[in-house]
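Example 321.
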Amino acid sequence: MNTCATTEHAAAARWSTEAVEALFALPFNDLIFRAQQVHRAHFDANAIQRSTLLSIKTGGCSEDCSYCSQSKRYKTGLESKPLMSLEQVLDMAQAAKTKGATRFCMGAAWRSPKEKDLEPVLEMVREVKKLGLETCVTLGMLKDGQAERLKEAGLDYYNHNLDTAREFYGQIVSTHTLDDRLETIGKVRRQGIKVCAGGIVGMGESRRVRAVLIAQLANLDPAPESVPINSLVRIEGTPLEKVPALDPLEFVRTIAVARITMPRSYVRLSAGREQMSDETQALCYLAGANSIFYGERLLTTDNADNSRDDQLFARLGLRAM
Ligand code: SAM
Ligand code: DTB
Ligand code: SF4
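Predicted structure in complex with iron/sulfur cluster:
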């Protein structure tokens, strides 16, 4: 199945689409058993990393990503907001730290940051780090030299998702390509910044598309340190507002397949938790998810709130990392 089953740790391990599809097709119990084995070989199975998100610049984006509330092409009713002040960001970061997050992720609705935008973001990175938090930013495509400046500011992670498989990408986004995304990930990697890259499922894609996405993430060399698996949050006014919801068990399978193919990565159960039952989330943790977004808001939509997470962690005997 996996042509490299015995060399899972080798940097050059490659997953074929067929091998990943075969994982998806396993009986559910066998798939979860394999995911648990891989998870336990590399991580404490009861410890979950928690990151808090903040939208530092909201809406008005030039891109046409058909899932996104922030594209200016769709009437989603979202109020655009310019770049936040350093003080506002630091207040939110301190609050996140007090509540127990270890990483603070700042997101901006840009196709790509302009030079005048980057300087204040570098200051945010430097100051958030001083609070004792890991830093992550997601700013869109980076131009030459920008990753270097982020590295100099001390940035720990850059989030840039592949979002979906190449064969489906054109149906979801037309204003940039998957190769543009890969180019930015390469720039980040070359600067020694850790890569956070994942995707979205539940956009009406086939299981094969999900398998190609996971294979492509797993075949990045090295695999991303952090792999957010987002379940589409259907936003009114976007082209995907009425796409049928994905079977929750298929979402759990996607988590398990990500865990098996990226044994050393943090697999983040990301957007969509608000709409998920506690039982589905519990299955995701069982399938090897070991990171979440923690806090009331994602970027522009609600997240499962802290008290619900705290209760679920207590019911499952999970610990925060
Ligand atoms: N503009 C930057 C970019 O596109 O990389 C950063 C912000 S963008 C909102 C970050 C990621 O959020 C996207 O790549 C996508 O994976 C995720 N995302 C956006 N809207 C979503 C939605 N409605 N449901 C699930 N995930 C979503
Ligand atoms: C990621 O993979 N998911 C986060 C983060 N990276 C930036 C964003 C989720 C956004 C969900 C929809 C919203 O709140 O706008
Ligand atoms: Fe813009 Fe990012 Fe939303 Fe695409 S996903 S529309 S690039 S904010």
